[in-house]
């Protein structure tokens, strides 16, 4: 008899796939209540976090020292924080309720950086003023761009954009001028694309089939991905048309991420699935992984050149995978589970709510319902 | 076959030697016949008898450069040495476990520490620091550094931001001389201060601008008035502390108070005419530079370690990078061993890599020191030995290493020789709380800085807001 297992291609030994995160190196304590979101800045030195206490905080990544904070909401969680993906200036986008704040955390900036950041945020005021006088009525604008007031401006929150419904997702375009927000309950305004240099908000999808869950820009092409509960659609932004519909087979998608090459997508779902799609192959997933006992909240590729990806779950764990994408159309990605990172405690059925990879190092950060962020290396 | 009885009584010829004149045997007894069952303790007793010491002095023994940790018989077997040969056995004073001496409490996390004593490089021959008059500098995340005397008293504190002090956390502080101090900060500046012992005052004299991000470490060379700095902006800075020789500061990096809000974020320099720029900025690293040091033998040579995995050698006269060594991990700290051509680099992967920076060296990593359970962020060489090193880690411990205490690394990443620490120094606060094991991620106990002074001992600082002094008994190497 031949053991059928022996006919399967052998997966590489995880030890040979180092480096990848294995150990909790730092615990970031300070938030009162859940930490909802976190993001490492493009230089890789600072961690930003947002939580149920309505604060946005910045920490020194290795030491875990909190060095800056601002309270952006008194009655709502700071649900999302995302650094602008460009190291020339420090700008943090943070969402609480229906508001997005663009923050330039002045105390860690050099005068030069502060000036650049301020210029990037201020350039749109003139544009917005001129388009308003051109007859566009305020009623029609899908979002209101305003100065957030002296208290917040003194702390570096220089611009506030208010949309119609609570924002759950922010994703930046790689150049740092466009960003997209997703407000799942927003119906026709659920997905918005904002242009920072023009202080302009557009609603590209008047009708979406299902509740919007997440959105992403293609890493190199003018293509935009939108996930509803069951499907991920890609759109050509220039031709304004639907390109492809992916059917991961999950009942409720929570998040997805596009590989730097643009042809592979990972999808996480509340029904505990992690799915890998190869866009060259099929609209169905190439691989379905079911390791978690509870919902998967977040998935992310390492975007700094390492063949790694990770997911975060309400079971309190983060799982690290090797995921090597090969250029060859005929060859599939090699996927190897590497490590389960445990440490966050589950609070009221909620575990790890967000993760982010370091821009270059094999380091990961996670945000927990237990009120902590953790650095794993 | 030899019977068990015979094995037990087997003997081996040893020749005792030492490189320390004060413990040399008065009359060379020549080769001695000892039992192969002898271990360190029996050999130590033998040497004490030969020396006729009044009180027993604990000795350690080296055979072929390796510490004897087993019986001689087991050592011979493990190393494939015949019992027929005469063994050369070197003896040294045993390191005495460093004991806790005192703790100095702060209000905030402490990032860095330096010591001034009679043996400090910052003290010139003409000057003197008598015993008991030593000073400790501690740099804090509160943006201030403090000068302590040996009686746990703060005798001077650096200025507040609106009086010429740092506006963000201090990352490094060093004595340049008994009257001069340099500090670096997350606020992107290095500041030079005059210290007066009579009035116990610190006066800011220079603000050095040039780095575009946090200045995470500085090294000083007192005789040439040079400072070498490393920054998150991926560059290494070379500076002079002589105002007249320093280039002017880059205008775009000096904060200007233009409105109220900006004034809050970047206080106006308190004095005009004190801002200066770098002699040069050395570029090449592709990630955060965690540490930069002068070569201990030639101050025109600098070394830097970076998150980009490399150690670079710089010719500071021409500002040229003359060598790049690539390791396997992000590097978080760097120190040069005293009197040996070795650099020690601490990694985020929880170990220390020993590197021979000479161009002639063929291997990348000469040795790996393992034992820490979190990133190794600070290193200091033993002031008295070319083999000794102390490391400070985010795991909440300092470890003392003797690079002669090694075993061959079989099947481990990197291979080569693997060293194990001789002593682990935990945080005293952990003992006070009745615990023995550091919590996950060294939380609350992370060590950020460590310094090893011949007179004061091993001084370490960290997240527990304490300056902790540990000192071995005087017997260690007098
Ligand atoms: Mg393919």
Automatic annotation (TrEMBL), chain B:
WD repeat start and end residues: 163-203, 208-249, 282-324, 369-405
Coiled-coil positions: none
GO biological process, one term: maturation of 5.8S rRNA from tricistronic rRNA transcript (SSU-rRNA, 5.8S rRNA, LSU-rRNA)
SMART domains per the UniProt record, alphabetical: WD40
Subcellular localization: Nucleus, Nucleolus; Nucleus, Nucleoplasm
Domain NLE: 12-76
Region (Disordered): 238-281
One protein family per Pfam: NLE
InterPro entries: NLE, WD40/YVTN_repeat-like_dom_sf, WD40_PAC1, WD40_repeat_CS, WD40_repeat_dom_sf, WD40_rpt, WDR12/Ytm1
Keywords: Nucleus, Repeat, Ribosome biogenesis, rRNA processing, WD repeat
Origin superkingdom: Eukaryota
GO CC term, one of those recorded: nucleoplasm
GO molecular function per UniProt: ribonucleoprotein complex binding
Assigned protein family: Belongs to the WD repeat WDR12/YTM1 family.
Function: Component of the NOP7 complex, which is required for maturation of the 25S and 5.8S ribosomal RNAs and formation of the 60S ribosome.
Subunit and partners: Component of the NOP7 complex, composed of ERB1, NOP7 and YTM1. Within the NOP7 complex ERB1 appears to interact directly with NOP7 and YTM1. The NOP7 complex also associates with the 66S pre-ribosome.
Protein name, per record: Ribosome biogenesis protein YTM1
Encoding gene per record: YTM1
């Amino acid at each position: 008899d031949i053991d059928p297992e022996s006919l399967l291609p052998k997966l590489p030994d995880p030890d040979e796939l180092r480096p990848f995160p294995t150990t909790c190196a730092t615990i970031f304590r300070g938030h009162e209540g859940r930490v909802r979101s976190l993001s490492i800045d493009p230089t890789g030195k600072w961690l930003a976090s947002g939580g149920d206490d309505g604060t946005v905080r910045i920490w020194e990544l290795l030491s875990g020292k909190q060095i800056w904070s601002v309270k952006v909401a008194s009655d709502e969680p700071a649900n999302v924080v995302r650094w602008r993906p460009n190291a020339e200036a420090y700008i943090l986008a943070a969402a609480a309720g229906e508001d997005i704040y663009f923050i330039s955390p002045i105390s860690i900036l050099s005068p030069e950086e502060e000036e650049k950041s301020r210029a990037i945020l201020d350039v749109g005021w003139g544009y917005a003023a001129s388009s308003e006088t051109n007859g566009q009525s305020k009623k029609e604008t899908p979002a209101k761009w305003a100065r957030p007031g002296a208290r917040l401006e003194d702390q570096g929150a220089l611009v506030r954009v208010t949309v119609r419904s609570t924002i759950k997702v922010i994703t930046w375009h790689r150049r740092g001028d466009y960003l997209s927000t997703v407000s799942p309950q927003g119906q026709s305004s659920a997905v918005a694309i904002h242009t920072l240099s023009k202080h302009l908000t557009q609603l590209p999808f008047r009708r979406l089939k299902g509740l919007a869950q997440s959105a992403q820009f293609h890493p190199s092409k003018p293509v935009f991905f939108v996930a509803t509960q069951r499907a991920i659609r890609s759109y050509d932004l220039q031709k304004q048309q639907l390109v492809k519909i992916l059917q991961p087979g999950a009942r409720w998608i929570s998040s997805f991420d596009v590989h730097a090459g643009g042809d592979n997508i990972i999808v996480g779902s509340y029904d505990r699935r992690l799915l890998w799609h190869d866009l060259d192959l099929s609209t169905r997933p190439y691989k379905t992984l079911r390791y978690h006992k509870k919902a998967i909240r977040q998935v992310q590729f390492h975007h700094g050149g390492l063949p790694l990806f990770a997911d975060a779950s309400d079971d309190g764990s983060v799982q690290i995978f090797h995921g090597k994408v090969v250029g060859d159309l005929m060859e599939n990605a090699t996927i190897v589970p590497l490590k389960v990172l445990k440490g966050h405690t589950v609070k009221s059925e909620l575990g790890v709510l967000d993760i982010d990879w370091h821009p270059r190092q094999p380091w990961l950060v996670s945000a927990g319902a237990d009120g902590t962020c953790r650095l794993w290396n | 076959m030899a019977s068990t009885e015979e094995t037990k009584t087997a003997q081996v010829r040893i020749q005792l030697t030492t490189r320390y004149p004060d413990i040399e045997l008065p009359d060379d007894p020549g080769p001695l016949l000892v039992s192969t069952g002898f271990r360190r303790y029996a050999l130590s007793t033998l040497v004490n008898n030969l020396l006729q010491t009044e009180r027993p002095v604990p000795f350690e023994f080296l055979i072929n450069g390796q510490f004897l940790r087993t019986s001689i018989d087991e050592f011979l077997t493990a190393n494939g040495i015949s019992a027929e040969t005469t063994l050369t056995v070197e003896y040294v004073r045993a390191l005495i476990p460093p004991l806790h001496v005192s703790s100095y409490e702060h209000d905030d996390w402490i990032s860095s520490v330096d010591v001034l004593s009679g043996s400090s490089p910052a003290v010139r021959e003409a000057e003197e620091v008598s015993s008991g008059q030593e000073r400790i500098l501690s740099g804090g995340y509160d943006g201030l550094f403090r000068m302590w005397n040996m009686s746990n008293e703060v005798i001077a504190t650096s200025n507040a931001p609106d009086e010429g002090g740092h506006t963000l956390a201090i990352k490094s502080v060093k004595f340049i001389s008994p009257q001069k101090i340099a500090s670096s900060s997350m606020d992107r500046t290095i500041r030079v201060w005059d210290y007066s012992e009579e009035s116990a005052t610190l006066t800011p004299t220079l603000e050095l601008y040039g780095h575009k991000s946090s200045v995470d470490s500085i090294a000083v060379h007192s005789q040439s008035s040079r400072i070498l700095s490393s920054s998150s902006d991926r560059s290494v800075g070379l500076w002079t502390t002589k105002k007249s020789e320093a280039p002017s500061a880059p205008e775009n990096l000096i904060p200007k108070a233009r409105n109220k809000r900006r004034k809050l974020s970047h206080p106006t320099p308190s004095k005009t005419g004190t801002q200066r720029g770098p002699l040069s900025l050395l570029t090449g690293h592709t990630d955060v530079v965690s540490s930069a040091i002068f070569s201990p033998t030639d101050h025109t040579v600098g070394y830097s370690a970076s998150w980009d995995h490399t150690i670079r050698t710089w010719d500071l006269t021409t500002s040229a990078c003359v060598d790049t060594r690539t390791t396997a991990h992000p590097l978080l700290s760097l120190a040069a061993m005293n009197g040996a051509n070795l650099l020690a680099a601490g990694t985020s992967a929880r170990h220390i890599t020993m590197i021979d920076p000479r161009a002639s060296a063929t291997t990348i990593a000469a040795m790996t020191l393992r034992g820490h359970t979190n990133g190794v962020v600070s290193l200091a060489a033993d002031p008295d030995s070319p083999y000794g090193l102390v490391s400070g880690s985010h795991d909440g411990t300092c470890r003392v290493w003797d690079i002669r205490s090694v075993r061959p690394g079989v099947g481990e990443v990197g291979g080569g020789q693997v060293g194990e620490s001789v002593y682990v120094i935990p945080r005293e606060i952990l003992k006070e709380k009745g615990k023995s094991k550091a919590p996950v991620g060294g939380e609350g106990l992370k060590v950020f800085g460590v310094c090893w002074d011949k007179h004061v001992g091993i001084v370490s600082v960290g997240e527990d807001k304490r300056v902790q002094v540990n000192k071995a008994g005087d017997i260690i190497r007098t």
